[in-house]
Specification:
Length: about 260
C-alpha cells in the first residue's frame, strides 16, 4: 500500500482514562483496519456524545432499540479517498460489518501473502455468522455479565448509567448488577459457558491446525468473535476463567489476534 494513501478517520467509543477501546463492534472494525493494513487515526468520542456525533456527521442509524427508536452508536469510518452516493467528498460508513466490506473491497488483492478479509463467496455466510455471534454473546448472559463493569469515564459515568438504566427498564443502574460470587451470577456464567460451547466452540473443527475457524487461516469471522472477546477482556471480572473454557479455545483465539490490535 502506498505511503501517500489518505488516512481514514475511525470514530470509536472512549473509555475512562486511560482511553482504550473496549466495545465489541468498534473492535471488529479496528481488527479489520489493522488486518488490511489500512492507514487510519482514531477519534475518541465520549459515550454521552456518541449520538450527537453521529447526527452531526450525517450518518443514519444502522440499528434499532427494541422500542423501534434509532440506536445511534459507533463505529463510524470516514474514507476521504472515495465519493459517497450524494457526491460529497469522502464516504462515511456507519456499521462494523459494512466497514469490513468497504475495507475488503479496497484491499481485494492482499499483499505479502495475507489472506483476504472475506474468502470468495462468503459475504452472506459472514453476515449470518455476525448476527449469530452477536445474539450468542448478548442474549445468553455475556453482555449482562460484562456490561455492568464497562470502563466508563468518571466525568460522565452518572449520565451514561442513568441512560442505560432507563433503556433497560430499571430505576437504578445498580439494579443491573449480578455481584461476583453470587449464586445467580454463577448460574448465569454456567449458562453462558454452555451456550458458547454448543453455539460456537463446536464450530471450531480444525483446532489441531490452528486457533482460527479455518485452523491456520484467519478471516473476518475470527475478528467478529475477537471483538466480543475484547469486550469480555475489558469488562468481565471472570475473563481469565473464560479464557480457559472449552480447552482454552477463547484464550488461544484472543492471543492469536493480538497482532491486529494496534490502536492508531
Amino acid at each position: 500500500m502506498g505511503g501517500l494513501e489518505p488516512i481514514m478517520t475511525f470514530y470509536d467509543i472512549a473509555s475512562g482514562p486511560p482511553v482504550r477501546p473496549f466495545a465489541p463492534n468498534p473492535w471488529k472494525a479496528r481488527y479489520a483496519l489493522n488486518f488490511t493494513k489500512t492507514p487510519y487515526r482514531t477519534t475518541w468520542v465520549p459515550l454521552p456524545d456518541v449520538a450527537a456525533t453521529r447526527k452531526k456527521l450525517g450518518v443514519p442509524a444502522s440499528r434499532k432499540y427494541p422500542d423501534g427508536t434509532d440506536f445511534l452508536t459507533l463505529p463510524i469510518l470516514y474514507d476521504p479517498s472515495t465519493t459517497s452516493s450524494t457526491q460529497q467528498e469522502g464516504t462515511f460508513v456507519g456499521d462494523s460489518f459494512d466497514i469490513a466490506i468497504h475495507l475488503h473491497n479496497k484491499n481485494s488483492c492482499p499483499d505479502g501473502g495475507r489472506p483476504p478479509l472475506f474468502p470468495p463467496n462468503t459475504l452472506a455466510l459472514h453476515r449470518t455468522f455476525n448476527a449469530h455471534v452477536d445474539a450468542l454473546f448478548s442474549i445468553n448472559g455475556g453482555a449482562q455479565l460484562a456490561g455492568y463493569y464497562m470502563p466508563f469515564d468518571p466525568a460522565t459515568a452518572e449520565t451514561t448509567k442513568a441512560d442505560m438504566a432507563r433503556r433497560a427498564g430499571v430505576s437504578r443502574w445498580e439494579d443491573l448488577e449480578l455481584p461476583p460470587g453470587s449464586e445467580e451470577r454463577k448460574q448465569k456464567l454456567a449458562g453462558f459457558e454452555a451456550a458458547l460451547g454448543s453455539g460456537l466452540a463446536a464450530w471450531f473443527v480444525r483446532r489441531d491446525e490452528g486457533p482460527f475457524l479455518e485452523g491456520r487461516t484467519p478471516m473476518y469471522a475470527d475478528l467478529i468473535v475477537g471483538g466480543w472477546l475484547q469486550f469480555m477482556r475489558n469488562c468481565l471480572p471472570e475473563w481469565e476463567e473464560l479464557r480457559g473454557w472449552h480447552g482454552g479455545l477463547w484464550g488461544n483465539l484472543h492471543d492469536a489476534l493480538e497482532q491486529w490490535t494496534e490502536v492508531s
